[in-house]
Each structure stands twice: as structure tokens, then as C-alpha cells.
Amino acid sequence: MNGSPILTQMPKVGRSLERRTARDVIADKLMVLVATNMLRPGDELPGERELANVLHVSRETVRGAIQALAARGIIEVSQGSRSRVANVDLSDVTVTIASPNAIDSYDLEAVHAARLHIELKVVGDAAENIDEDTLRKLETLLEAQRLGGDDAMRFLICDREFHVAIYRACGNPLLSDFVTDLYTYMMNYRRSAMSRPGAIGASYKDHSDIVEALARRDREAVVAAFRHHLMRIYETTKELLAEVGRAERSMGKGAKTR
């Protein structure tokens, strides 16, 4: 029994029995942003006040989380300048159930089909179960997205909190964790997609429509708004993957002619 692979593949079991502080939770959230390439090596972190507002904790909690990650070599902290993401690779770190590498090993069509099949059920349930505190949090995140302007990194930090808050409102933590993992698919490409002109504005409009439908507890409208949002993600990711494929083929042809 000692070396059972089943036990080694279940990192959440032991942690679920621990008493975790708010600092630990925020440190994990920031680590996930690095693991999924929302935050890349060399990126400056938003300020403590901004992160505290988005993550709904105190500045002291954010500061403690950054210090904890600095001690692990994930964040670089220096006097007189913003904290930066260190040159680390966390792609094998488990996000909720699986690692980003595991999710990215599937093709786009499989992940898109899974999101349509499962995520729309989850957000439909969220429409019926969401509480006022979560709706207020979503409104705050919408405002943070608006204030972030055209900064793709800042938008995606808010975006993840926005999506996860809705998933958790469904009332089923396992389904919530599963669709959170699907959300992380090809996040490196999502950041590139959100850097394109008009992309943040279009996504913000989608989010506003989703919150309006959630506030009415209108399951059908929430599912329709989310379906539209998921189709946008699918189309932009597909376009980017095609561009990368063309670039790689072009480089390959260039190498052969030399």
C-alpha cells in the first residue's frame, strides 16, 4: 500500500484537512495565475491595493501571500519597485483537479465540447442558487475590469475571479473545480487574444450581460449569455492556434531551404 499511485494523485485530500489562512488561499490563487500563464516570468504584479480589491481581502493578506511566494522563489520582491514573477515553470502544478499541462494536452474541439456540455449546466444552476454577496462581488469585478482599461494581464486576473465566483455559485464543488480546470485551457493564448484591439471590450460586454441575467435569476438568459461567451473564446483561440501553426510551418520551410 505504501507507494500507491492513487494516493499520490490526490493532492487535495490532505490539504482539505488543514486549517488554511486567508494568506495561504491568496498565495495559492497567485500561484495559479503563474501556473496558467496569466502571469508570466518578468511580469510586474499589480499593486497591493488593486489585488486586495480584486481578490476581496485586505492589503495585509495580499502582502503576506506575496512574501510567502517570494520565500518559495515564485515572486521576486525588491525595495522601491513592484514585485515581479520569477523565472519559474509551474505548469505541472495542480490547479484544482488537474495541472495546466494535463488540460492543455487535449485538443481545442474536445475542450470546447466539454465546456458546452458541462459549463452551461453549471452556470444554469448558478442562476438559481446565486446569493446577493456573490452578485455584489461580480459587480465589483466588473468595475475592476472597466478600470483596468486595455491591460490584458489585469483583465484576466479579474476574469478568473469572475468565472470562478459564478462556478462556485452552482452549489456543487466538484463540478465547480472541474469547469475551473477547463477554464484554464491554453491560457497563454487567451492572454494574447485579449491583447488584441476590441477584445477586452467585447468580453466586458459579455460579462455585463451575464451579470444582468444572473441578477434576474434567469437560467435561460444566463445559459444563452454564457454560450455566446464560450463561442467567442473558442473562435479566438482557434484563430490563434491556426496562426501559430502557420508560423511554425513557415519556420520549418525556412530551415529546410538553408
From TrEMBL:
Domain HTH gntR-type positions: 20-88
Taxonomy, superkingdom: Bacteria
Nucleotide-binding listed as a keyword: no
PROSITE patterns linked to this entry: HTH_GNTR
Keywords attached to this entry: DNA-binding, Transcription, Transcription regulation
Name assigned to this protein: FadR/GntR family transcriptional regulator
Native species: Sinorhizobium psoraleae
